[in-house]
């Protein structure tokens, strides 16, 4: 296997297919209510934790004031259970007046004033998954226009209570309707998740043309098992999924649950690192008001965010599944850089995993290695030098690699007596 060849082939094939709204050239980042706040509409008992204007304003404040926005976390996204049970007299969706007394345009302004963007949720079907009014085919145009009039920047369109035929009509129809509003509105389609996530039922070429991102698989829950099942599904099907993704069009393995209740710190690092490798949208679903400093440090890790946001936009893959229950993930990045994640599925003790870059398919040469979580630069590593990483149970070791000089270049340079420091250090 020769990873760099994959880069060229993919980069070339990505050039022409993306959705025409110019949005999300790198995976979107922000906050999304669902996993943490669900359908809690009990604002009388707990006004700060229910789906309400107040919750979204609070999250906007935190994103703007706690350093998130500058890192790229700009979306504040409403999920299900925001609307009234009835449409208005003109047939438009309307928010529950008790919980959104200012209406959505005012909330949108609050969010925009802070340099952020607003996302909203709809469902192609008779009802949303939570039982609120859905967007049947005859309502697609009016709902798209309503969202645009309100100043919405992103729509997640779920698929409960609709059939295969309605979805095949409705998802492309909404894409057109959003474009027709002339407001740039990013479009997240849950369509593939309702069709099993795989061809032939799912046409990823078409999805890339009409949606900016899409949910492929089950909902994430606040547990390590849930994270593992998602990672497994995405890795088992990576041959199909990798080529579907690219600038403007992303597979969505669902929200980050770092900072919630289900993951240890090791597991939180693993989720963040694997989501970076998978070029996944980074939508946190947590309570930014009470986040621990450890969770914040993981979610705000600049190098990991840089890997996730790499402009080449090639989704990474699982390279290896060892009998030892170590798995190695790899993602190619711009300028021949790459990221490696050594992931332990073990539950006994830190495991010493020994390998070389050559074993992992790297071309000859020497590489600068930066350990993303220890924040240390390691000695320059030659492709065929064996090394050992110690990986904690359910944890990761995450490396960013940049080639110093390829072996061929080094030999050429030596011929002309340009023996530079970089070349010396290839002889470890
Ligand atoms: C579905 C979606 C979730 C969430 C809920 C809301 O299950 O997959 O992400 O939006 O509906 O009811």
Automatic annotation (TrEMBL):
Q: Name one GO biological process term.
A: glycolipid catabolic process
Signal peptide bounds: 1-18
MF term (GO), any: alpha-galactosidase activity
| Residue ranges constituting the Alpha galactosidase A C-terminal domain according to the UniProt record | 313-395
InterPro entries linked: Aldolase_TIM, GH, Glyco_hydro_27, Glyco_hydro_27/36_CS, Glyco_hydro_b, Melibiase/NAGA_C
Q: Quote the subcellular location field of this record.
A: Lysosome
Enzyme type, top EC level: hydrolase
Q: In the Enzyme Commission scheme, what number(s) does this protein have?
A: 3.2.1.-
Q: Which UniProt keywords apply?
A: Disulfide bond, Glycoprotein, Glycosidase, Hydrolase, Lipid metabolism, Lysosome, Signal
Record text on subunit structure and interactions: Homodimer.
* Name of this protein: Alpha-galactosidase
Species whose genome carries this gene = Albula goreensis
Ranked from the top, the taxonomy reads:
Eukaryota, Metazoa, Chordata, Craniata, Vertebrata
């Amino acid at each position: 296997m020769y990873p760099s060849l994959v880069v060229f082939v993919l980069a070339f094939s990505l050039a022409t297919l993306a959705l025409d709204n110019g949005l999300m050239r790198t995976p979107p980042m922000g906050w999304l209510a669902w996993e943490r706040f669900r359908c809690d509409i009990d604002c009388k008992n707990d006004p700060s934790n229910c789906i309400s204007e107040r919750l979204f304003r609070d999250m906007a404040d935190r994103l703007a004031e706690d350093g998130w926005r500058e890192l790229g976390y700009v979306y504040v996204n409403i999920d299900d259970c925001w609307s009234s049970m009835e449409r208005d007299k003109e047939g438009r969706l309307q928010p529950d007046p008790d919980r959104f007394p200012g209406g959505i345009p005012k909330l949108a302004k609050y969010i925009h004033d802070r340099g952020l963007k607003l996302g909203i949720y709809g469902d192609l079907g008779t009802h949303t998954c939570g039982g609120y009014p859905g967007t049947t085919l005859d309502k697609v145009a009016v709902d798209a226009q309503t969202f645009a009039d309100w100043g919405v920047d992103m729509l997640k369109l779920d698929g409960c209570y609709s059939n295969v035929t309605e979805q095949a009509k409705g998802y492309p129809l909404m894409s057109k309707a959003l474009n027709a509003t002339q407001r740039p509105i990013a479009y997240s389609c849950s369509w593939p998740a309702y069709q099993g996530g795989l061809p032939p039922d799912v046409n990823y070429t078409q999805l890339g043309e009409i949606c900016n991102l899409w949910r492929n698989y089950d909902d994430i829950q606040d547990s390590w098992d849930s994270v593992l099942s998602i990672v497994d599904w995405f890795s088992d099907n990576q041959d199909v999924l990798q080529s579907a993704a690219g600038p403007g069009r992303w597979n969505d393995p669902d929200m980050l649950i770092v900072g919630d209740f289900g993951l240890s710190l090791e597991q939180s690092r693993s989720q963040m690192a694997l989501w970076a490798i998978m070029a996944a949208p980074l939508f946190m679903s947590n309570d930014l008001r009470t986040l621990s400093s450890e969770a914040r440090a993981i979610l705000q890790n600049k190098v990991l965010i840089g890997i996730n946001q790499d402009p080449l936009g090639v989704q990474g893959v699982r390279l290896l599944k060892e009998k030892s229950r170590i798995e190695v993930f790899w993602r190619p990045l711009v300028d021949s850089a790459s990221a490696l994640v050594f992931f332990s599925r073990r539950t006994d003790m830190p495991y010493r995993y020994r390998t070389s870059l050559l074993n992992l398919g790297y071309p000859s040469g020497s590489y600068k290695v930066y350990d993303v979580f220890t924040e240390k630069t390691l000695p320059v590593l030659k492709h065929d030098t064996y090394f050992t990483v110690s990986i904690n149970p359910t944890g990761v070791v995450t490396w960013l690699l940049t080639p110093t000089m390829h072996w061929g270049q080094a030999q050429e340079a030596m011929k002309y007596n340009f023996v530079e420091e970089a070349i010396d250090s290839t002889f470890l």
